[in-house]
Fold this protein.
Amino acid sequence: MSKLVSSDGRTHITSSLMRESLVDRKVIAKTNSAEEFSIMPDVTLVSIGGQSIFDRGKAAVLPLVTELAAIRESRKYKMVIGVGGGARVRHTIAIALDLGLPTGGVAQLVGAMEEANAVFLNALMAKHGSIVMQREHFWELPLYLESGMLPIVISTPPYHFWEPPPVEDSPMPTHGSDFGLFIHAEVLGMKRIIFVKDEDGLYDKDPKKHSDARLIKKTTLGRLLGEMPEELILDQLLFKTWQNARHVERIQIVNGLRPGELTRALAGEDVGTVIMKEKIDG
Amino acid sequence: MGEQGPETSPRKGIANLPGVASFEQASAAGFDYRPVALMPDVKVLKIGGQSLLDRGRKALFPVLDEIAAAKDKHKLLVCCGGGTRARHIYSVASDLELPTGVLAALGGYVPRQNARMLQMLLAKHGGIFMLHDDFEKLPLYFRLGCIPIMTGMPPFGYWEKPAENSRIPQNRTDAGVFLSAEVLGAKRAIFVKDEDGLYDDDPKKNKSAKLIPRITAKELLALDLPDLILERVVIEYLQRARFCTELQIINGLVPGMLTRALEGEDVGTIISKA
């Protein structure tokens, strides 16, 4: 049982970390474990791209809405929808940097542009049971899912003014939407994330610029980190963070412009690009 | 490949607006980024959790007296550490096998409690408790002569990155205090603790440990100490800081030390960007 100890002028509660420095590597290693609890392991996070889907308007969004409605109607999968911001986020950053706003100031601004896409999607999906999950309702996610609703979340993590200084020379915030969604899935112990984009998957270089770009159908995180393509459809930070993650096993990138791909991915088919955390056969 | 993809309408971009072109080259050398310091004259300070708050009245009241005496001369943003209750939460939560992000979210409760305690004690001097969402109201608080008091924890919560060999969140109250100073454009962040500064070993365990009055982030990391007086990420961030290029660690148990630090004196230890 925990009790209070105050022999050194400070009042402590007895615990494995009492009096200890939380910077001491040996001390904090005691909190590590291979048995971390998965909070919601059977939920899939589905990300709908901002630039790649929303910015294409009706032609790209409506077929996807129809598909999502059918998936939800089937009641086979529990999923959370994440939305990106797209062109408005890029524009916000461009203006904010031109004005000389600090990195944290830029980070404070961008989430609002994703909120707009969350509202667009919610307006189109409301009759199919969608709901925008505000961050302060984090622990209501099980309620939404158990009642058969389709929660929609924004992607950018809430680092806001406290965005750490960027690693590279560029003043752009480091912790963007791909990273934010990844962490959202990881902290809830989800096993898979599906990114819905406007390409057939991950290429060795940007297929919009290079006609000889090669699609990578299946790979592992280790292989990808060893040979990271210079132009990536997802943010590098996602992959670096994945290395230390305990739960996410599979990330899939599918083409949302091809009707049915998302449904097939949810059913476990290897459409698009599949990236596994662990080794795969062959 | 793009051209083999299904027929659909193109992406709607926002072209030909000022700044867009420069953003596309933002990562390229030569991009003319001229950062603006938002409130460079704010003094951001952290009141240690385990080091001061958990010592109670005896340690805390003299520090609060110094804060009250300085508040008309300086714009003070007071941030709170966690301390033993945060350690208890981390210990229980990791025993329950909960992930880092949950620990970070839970770890936020204690410094917020501490901030509320300080607000009650400083209320008669204009102490105002503020949340992260109130950050943009800082100019108002200072204009009114208030002492804004907030948690030191950054708002990452459930979005805190998992670390390799630990489930303790890497960004805790030291990180939040540094990042607050950085975004405000303040040159120094002041950490009020219960030791005279940074030592070459833990002075609580080794009596012959030597005080280091000044050191650079690079030199400090090169020492590769098994323990450090500030969170490791803060020393990493410091090397990339644009504004907050100095961290000052002082002993809040020594009367007058905080006042001298607020006057810009190099008391305690200064860890600098370069």
Observations:
- DSSP finds nine helices and twelve strands in chain A.
- The two ends of chain A are 52 Å apart (CA to CA).
- The longest helix of chain A spans residues 103-125.
- Chain A has a mean pLDDT of 93.
